[in-house]
Description:
Low-confidence stretches: 1-18
Structural class: alpha/beta
CATH topology of the largest domain: Rossmann fold
Oligomer: single chain
Largest sheet: 5 strands, parallel
Strand order of the largest sheet: 1-7-6-2-3
CATH class of the largest domain: Alpha Beta
Amino acid sequence: MALLAPLRWTGKRLLDTILPLRCLGRGLIVESGALCPACWSDLDQISAPVCACCGLPFSHDEGPDTICGGCLANPPAFDWARAALRYNDLAARLIVGFKHSDKLHHQDAFVRWLERAAGPDVGEVDLICCVPLQRRRLWHRRYNQSALLANALAQRLGKTATPELLVRRRATPPQAGLNRRQRIENLRGAMIIRSGMEDAVPGQRILLVDDVLTTGATVDACAKALKKAGAAHIAVVTLARVVRETT
Length: 247
C-alpha cells in the first residue's frame, strides 16, 4: 500500500501535464482549484449573516435567528434555503454554460459549493431531489442540470438521490420577466409527486436542489407538493440566488 501513494502522485502529475486544470471562467491554466485568482475575486460567495429562513444575505448581523421581511410577510413552504453565490455576471456565465453549453465539467466545483452553502444541517437529510424540468425542455436540453447536481451531491454526502421524485404535470410558460405573484400563479398546482413514488415522501427530511433562486416561487411550489405528500422537513440549496439591492 505504501507504494501506491507515489504512483498516484506520478499519475496525477502526468494527467495534469496532458490535461492541465483550467479556470472555469476564463479558461486559463491554474495550478489548483476551479478558478483563477481574478475569477475568485469576481465570485460573490454568500456567507452569514443571512435570513434564517430563505438565506437572503443581510448587510448587518441581527442574530442567527433573524427572518427577513419577505419571509415574515409570506412564509415559504420550505423550512430553510441557502445559496452558494450571488447571481452576478460570473455566476450567470458559469451556470448558463453548465445548463446550455454542455460544460458538465463544472459539476465537481458546483457540488463542493452546494455542500458548503448547505452547511452542517445537510447531514440530517434523508433524501435529495431536484426541481423538475418540463418534458419539452428536457428533450431539447437532453439533461436536467439540477438532477445532475442532486445526484452528485447525494453521492458526495452518502445520501439517497431521488431526482425523479417531482414532476411538472403541465407545461408552464417561462418565468423570466414575471414578478413573484405572477410566478406563483404560473406554477400553482404544476408540481406533483411522481405516480408510484408517494410512499417515499412521508416523514422524510428532504433536500431540494436547483441552480438559481430568483423569487423562490419555483422551489416553494416544489416544497408545497412535498409537504402535501407528508414530508417532515424541506431544505433547499441552490448554486446562486438573485439579490436585489435596496436603496
